[in-house]
Description:
This is G5 domain-containing protein. By secondary structure, this protein is mainly beta. The chain has 4 helices and 21 strands. It has helices at residues 9-30, 54-60, 111-118, 309-315; strands at residues 34-40, 43-49, 70-73, 84-88, 91-97, 100-106, 125-128, 140-145, 150-157, 161-170, 174-178, 183-194, 197-209, 214-221, 224-227, 230-245, 266-268, 279-282, 286-292, 301-305, 318-325. The strands form 5 sheets. Strands 16-20-17-19-18-21 form a 6-stranded mixed barrel.
Amino acid sequence: MQVESCFNRPYKILVVLLMSIITVCFLGFVAAPKNIVVVADGVTTKIEVRALTVKGALADAGVVLSDADGYVITNADKLEDGAIVEVIRAMPIKVWKAGRTTDYSIGRGTVKEVLDAIGVEYGDCKVYPALSEKPTSGMTINVIANGAKMATEIRELPYEVKLQNSDALPRGRREVITPGKNGETKVIMRIVNVGNREFTREVAEEVITPAQPEVVAIGTGANMLETSRGYVRYKQVKQVEATAYTLAEGNGDGVTSIGIVPYKGIIAVDPSEIPYGTRVYIPGYGFAMAGDTGGAIEGNRIDLYMEHYPDAIKWGRRTVNMYILE
């Protein structure tokens, strides 16, 4: 008995031809060139690939994956133009389950992917850190039965101190710019009974309130002086013998040798040692300017103008450091 085909020969040829065209078009579409970025071993590479899979694209980029290594596409759902593929090298990870800790070397994008890759069942368990968390080197993943006894505890999270150099402060001086503030964390613990004693095992920690770091400036400025107006920079310090005078002791016409009416802050100097107009700071007197002179003022000798005679008498004669300001 002869069975006739349901398709005549011309139709068979047409179907095969159409299928071939569809296959070629499909392969041409998926194999179209894609510009991707590969991040592996600290190196970022931009490359054009035609691979259909991520592993193929990584091979095109010269990146070799071991079975323990993994990868994630950080900005897309699949390998497509513009995708960023990040390689995750195998790292040491511990898994604690049923009272037993097992060491693994595995690289994956999430805790869930790690457990799936090593074949650890977690469907009816609580997992800490969460399944969506990104694994880190040395992490311990805790897989705990739903009926396990758990406890939580709120703890203080100490702030850290961040140091930054400041040329506006004298060298070695510290100044708090932003005070630190402690935060809070919630610690999740597994309670285990051994005989008639109860023990706790920390399995996770969640930050409730982040700590605010304390920012401290460390002085790196040279030749800085602290005054009532803050820190000032000086270029030279001279040890001088300082006396005091009042308007009655001047030249009699009520003006200084440079033609200004004296006021608190004008000092008489030897212009050959300290030019007129020089700004200085004198401890116990304050900021001043060289604006007068006198017959007895020579070398490292200065005279400080005082508005009141008792103040001049109280000052007397003393040796002081005079800071010549920048």
